[in-house]
Amino acid sequence: MKIKKGDKVQVITGAYKGTIADVTKVFPKEDKVIVEGVNIVKKHLKPTQENPDGGIVEKEAPIHVSNVMAYDAKAKTASKIGFKEEKGKKVRYFKKTGAVLK
After folding, report:
1. The pLDDT value given to residue 102
2. Which of 10, 11, 41, 81 could bridge 71 with an S-S bond, Cβ 3.0-4.6 Å?
3. Is there a domain that residue 1 lies in?
4. Is the dihedral of CA 95, 13, 26, 38 positive or negative?
């Protein structure tokens, strides 16, 4: 998976199309990511001893990694990610601009 935690991504399909935000969690086995403020769902909580009232909580649900694209803030465009070797190390770079990711 080419997207990692902390990457800035742009959502390219679905209800949140065009949204630019950071990846907060990655699930490589499922090919899914959680993006900050995207795919908000309501979870109903049963009353417990710690939370006697229960209630409804809004949280972010995972979306498939194919629905997001890495975002280059300098060029202000979404781009595919490639790998290349630079100074003996494998680095990720934006294919559109050639800029290396952190």
Report:
1. 78
2. 10
3. no
4. positive
